[in-house]
Design a protein that fits this description.
Elements: H1 2-25, H2 29-33, E1 39-41, H3 55-66, E2 70-75, H4 95-101, H5 103-109, E3 115-120, H6 148-168, E4 175-179, H7 183-187, H8 199-222, E5 229-236, H9 239-245, H10 250-253, H11 255-258, E6 262-266, H12 268-271, H13 277-293, E7 307-312, H14 316-338, E8 343-345, H15 374-397, H16 403-410
């Protein structure tokens, strides 16, 4: 009997050792596919495509095939014109119906992406633009103040969309960030950065942002869901004028009043002028610090920084392929050092053409001849190195790496040399 008593604990101990070894050797696939690899790109308004699929679906597939698990795109009444050229459907009268009834939008929402950054603009706020023309005043109704009828309609539309997405993607593991394009240009809708901000419009845009945050918060409060997340973000862009001149911009006026879940920074005002990596590194981190200094603390959010790099990039036409890639690495390294949760390059296919010559400006990772640029290969290699690191780390520690551990490893990847 003593022998039996000895053998049973021994068998149990050996089984436990074997199970522990299996955990370390067999890394759960979702630990790799769902990890936040920080860098990615976006797709809005591309000027060419190469397949029979829609522009939105084709570019989303390209982003996925490059290795990214993050898609940034736009849900907007312009879905059938400038943004993607999709077929117009008169039944689509709201953001929810756009998600439900537009086949390409529905398809990309159901693709195997973990993270989504989406510009959301309400149909309830939009007036049709003249054919072939773009006028942002048709989509923003807070110039000179925000009327209750528009505020209430926007609340209802975003509440409905958030409720739908929480139910539709319940238990999917997806994370959605719903936000806006460069908000300081909405504040200065005339695109003259030298003019002072209009006080009535400042009050109007603050109300607009608060309505967007409240609609998302209320829908989350009122809806049963699990393993899916939706957050609201504000995007800002004219930071340098606030730092250098003390001008009223969204960051130093509205941001602290709204206290959004997250802030996206479209960084051209500090990433394009610098001639050296050192200067860019200093300016970008100073700008990120400046934004963060106006962002109050907020409970109920994941750990980590709440300000990210939503746009950066340099056009091929003025930099060439090598310099475009080099300057992108400058931004990526500075962003990683600062621990920006996302760093998004503008963009997969170019969206700008010079009116005078018809030339592609070249904000691209794949050019108009379907050639993958160096910046594409940098991202592709970064993902491969990242996945190897996460897998190796998990095998050693039986858990995914922290952001800090990932950052420290990533800064030494060959892809960023």
């Amino acid at each position: 009997m003593k022998i039996i008593y000895f053998i049973i604990p021994l068998v149990m101990l050996l089984s436990a050792w074997a199970f522990a070894g299996q955990l370390k050797d067999d890394v759960p696939q979702k630990e790799i596919t769902d990890y936040n690899y920080v860098i990615s790109t976006q797709t809005v308004g591309s000027k060419y495509k190469f397949t029979d699929e829609s522009m939105l679906v084709e570019t989303a597939r390209q982003i996925k095939d490059m290795g990214s698990n993050l898609l940034k795109f736009s849900m907007h009444p312009r879905y059938c014109t400038e943004n993607y050229g999709l077929p117009e459907n008169k039944e689509i009268t709201s953001l929810t119906k756009l998600a439900q009834l537009e086949p390409s939008v529905k398809e990309v929402l159901n693709m195997d992406f973990k993270y989504y950054h989406i510009w959301v603009y309400g149909f309830s706020q939009y007036l049709p633009e003249p054919p072939g023309k773009k006028n942002d005043t048709t989509q923003i109704k807070f110039i000179g103040g925000y009327e209750e009828c528009y505020a209430n309609a926007l609340y209802d539309e975003l509440y409905e969309l958030t409720t739908y997405m929480l139910k539709e993607f319940n238990n999917s593991g997806k994370v959605f960030y719903l936000g806006n394009w460069e908000g300081d240009w909405h504040l200065r809708w005339h695109y003259d950065r030298t003019k002072p901000a209009d006080e009535a419009t400042l009050a109007g845009i603050e109300k607009w942002f608060k309505i967007r945050q409240k609609a998302i918060d209320d829908a989350k409060r009122d809806t049963e869901y699990e393993n899916v997340e939706i957050y609201h973000y504000m995007e800002v862009n004219l930071i340098q004028r606030g730092i250098d001149l003390g001008d009223k911009v969204l960051t130093n006026t509205v941001l602290k009043e709204v206290n959004p879940d997250y802030v996206s920074y479209s960084t051209y005002d500090v990433t394009n002028p610098p001639k050296t990596e050192e200067e860019l590194n200093t300016k970008l981190k100073k700008a990120l610090d400046y934004i963060e200094s106006y962002l109050p603390e907020k409970e109920g959010l994941p750990e980590g920084k709440r300000v990210w790099i939503g746009e950066y990039g340099n056009p091929f036409i003025s930099h060439g392929e090598d310099k475009q890639d080099e300057r992108a690495k400058w931004v990526i390294k500075a962003g990683l050092e600062w621990e920006s949760p996302f760093i998004l390059f503008w963009e997969m296919y170019n969206n700008e053409i010079k009116k005078e010559t018809g030339e592609q400006v070249g904000y691209w990772m794949i050019d108009d001849e379907n050639k993958k640029q160096k910046i594409w290969h940098t991202h592709n290699q970064f993902y491969k190195e990242s996945q190897r690191f996460v897998e190796k780390y998990y095998k050693k520690h039986n858990e995914a790496p922290s952001f800090t551990a990932f950052k420290e490893a990533a800064l030494n990847f060959k892809s960023l040399k």
